[in-house]
Design a protein that fits this description.
single chain; about 90 residues; alpha+beta; 3-stranded antiparallel β-sheet; 3 strands; globular
Length: about 90
């Protein structure tokens, strides 16, 4: 008897993740969170530490501190980064 592996719902997406028109997005909106309920699909498929190290080195967009404990990224910066990756 053959055993087939079922893919989790977050791997079977009917539509790619959507960015809002303007504003800010948090880390888990960018890199996704498969443990959330419901799972949050990744806009940019890298792990959290890779994203944060890339932000520090200048490879990825710089974050904005909204408060002492809240960090986010501008949607316009994320869109520009995605567009630049498509141009390469």
């Amino acid at each position: 008897m053959a055993v087939t592996a079922l893919k989790p719902d977050y791997l079977i997406q009917k539509q790619p993740p959507q960015l809002p028109e303007t504003g800010f997005v948090r880390l888990w909106d960018i890199v996704g969170d498969k443990n959330a309920t419901p799972p949050i699909p990744a806009i940019i498929p890298v792990c959290r530490s890779t994203w944060l190290n890339g932000c520090k080195s200048g490879k990825y967009p710089k974050p904005v501190k909204l408060s002492e404990r809240t960090t986010a990224w501008r949607v316009s910066d994320i869109r520009a980064f995605i567009d630049s990756m498509g141009a390469q």
